[in-house]
Each structure stands twice: as C-alpha cells, then as structure tokens.
Amino acid sequence: MQILVTGTSRGIGKSIAQKLLEEGHEVIGTSRSTNHDFPNNENYRHIACDLSKQKEVEKLKAVFEEDEIPEVLINNAGMFAEADFDISDDEWLANWDLTLQVNLRSAGLISKWALNAWKKAGIEGRLVNISSRAGTRGDTQEYASYAASKGGMTAFTKSIARSFGKHGITAYTIAPGFVNTDMAQGSIEVYGEDYLTKDLALDSIAPPQQIAEITFLLASGKLKHATGQTFHVNSGSYLV
Predict the structure, then answer these.
(1) Rounded mean pLDDT of the chain?
(2) Residue 158: CB partners within 8 Å, gap ≥ 6?
(3) What stretches of the chain adopt beta strand conformation (E)?
(4) DSSP states along 147-200
(5) How many CB atoms neighbour CB 211 within 10 A?
C-alpha cells in the first residue's frame, strides 16, 4: 500500500511515517526541507514542499497523476503561530491567511486531487486528517486562527465522508491534545510540565506513537463504518 503523509520531518508526522514503514508500506513524505530521517529506506520517497506557498503545494498534484497513486492520504502538516487580538489588523489577518493556507487550504486541495484520482481509478481510498483538540474545544484567543483552521478541517472531513462514501471512499479526523513532541517541549520550557497536565485525566501527555497507531488503524481500511468520525486522543482533557 502506498501512502502520502504531509509533514514527516518531526513529531506526529515522523512517527506516522515510521509506523507505516515498519508495517511494510510505501510512504511518500513531505516537509519544507530536502533532508529527512529515512534516507536508507527504499520504501520512502521524499518531496520537499512548503505548504505556505501555492506553487509548492501544486508539486503534489503530480503524485496523483502517476501510474501508481497513493491509496491513503494523511494530512498531518500544520503550523501554530500566535496572533494576539491587540496587534494591528494587517498583522492579524496575515497570521490568519498563513495559518489557513498551511492547515486547511492546502490540505483541502491535496484531498481534492486524491478524491478525484480515487474516483477515476475506482480505488476505495482513505483520507485521514490530523486536526487538534482546539478544533473542538477551542483555544486561547491568541491561537484563534489555529483553532478555526482545525475546526474547519474536521468539518471538511465530515463533508468528504458524506459525499464520497458511496464510492467506497472513507474519511476520518484525529484530534490530538498535547503530544510529547518538540512543540510541546517548547511549551514545557516556557510554562512547565504542570501547565500541560493540570487539566488532564492522566498524569502525562500522549506520545506521538499513540497517534501513529490509530492513524495506521484508520489507514488500513478496517474501520470503514466509522467514516466521518473524529477520534480524540487528548489524555482526557475533554470528553465527548
């Protein structure tokens, strides 16, 4: 099985790629850099792609025009940038434009290419979108653009599930809370570990490998009748 995963340079995306490769699948990974962590794995192909730039995103269209196309698309790449309501309108809107481009607009366009290719080829494709608890729970005001982008991703997934299910195509959202990645470590250094765990039902944040495990399960096609659902992996920070 061939799978396209965006944002494989670190954190959740890297763990997802590792899991899929360990299970013997072919992975096409993306990041802004040409460097990656799987140089000696013949089942891994890397595409340098900056999702903030439309012309860069368009590189990925060719992936779904090849003789063999990915059966699974995992939209994982994303950004998280502060934009306080006290900053100028121009700065605030620039943050929104960039965040929505990277987190939502690019993912939507790549999904469009995948969906059209799957329909044409008669492939029962699987779309997995890595959202965030912020898309359901909201976030603090300075990260409102991030929360909005992730909420949009969840709604997009549901629309795909409802519209393409009769073609055998399924779509899922995974909504992680804090995950033990470089991004979380940065927050720990600023706020302390207690800040990240104080609202959790557990005493620790999730390792990225747990996100990789559930992603692998959804990518396998074994949960067809869960299409459209959001899978919350947030250490019990909220329960739905």
Answers:
(1) 94
(2) 171, 173, 228
(3) 2-6, 26-31, 44-48, 72-75, 126-130, 170-176, 230-233
(4) HHHHHHHHHHHHHHHHHHGGGT-EEEEEEE-SBSSHHHHHHHHHH-HHHHHTT-
(5) 24
pLDDT of residue 205: 86
Q: How far is CA 26 from CA 4, 70, 72, 77, in A?
A: 9, 9, 11, 19
Q: Would you call 20 exposed, middle or buried from its count of C-beta atoms within 10 A (0-12, 13-18, 19+)?
A: buried
Q: Which residues pair with 173 in a beta bridge?
A: 129, 230
| Superfamily, domain 2-232 | NAD(P)-binding Rossmann-like Domain (3.40.50.720)
Tokens for 127, please give them: 């779309």
Catalytic residues: 146
Bridge partners (DSSP) listed for residue 230:
173
Half-sphere exposure of 3 (CA within 13 A, CB side): 31
Please give the Cα distance from 105 to 65 (Å, whole number): 20
**Any idea where the domains of the chain sit in the sequence?**
2-232
**pLDDT of 190-221, one tens digit each?**
666 677 788 889 888 899 999 999 999 999 99
Give the pLDDT confidence score for residue 240 in this predicted structure.
Answer: 87
Which H or E run includes 115? helix 106-121
pLDDT for position 187: 62
Residues 227/172, Cβ–Cβ less than 8 Å:
yes
47-89: pLDDT as tens digits: 999 999 999 999 999 999 999 999 999 999 999 999 999 999 9
Tokens 């470590």 belong to 185
* 43: Cα within 13 Å, side-chain hemisphere: 15
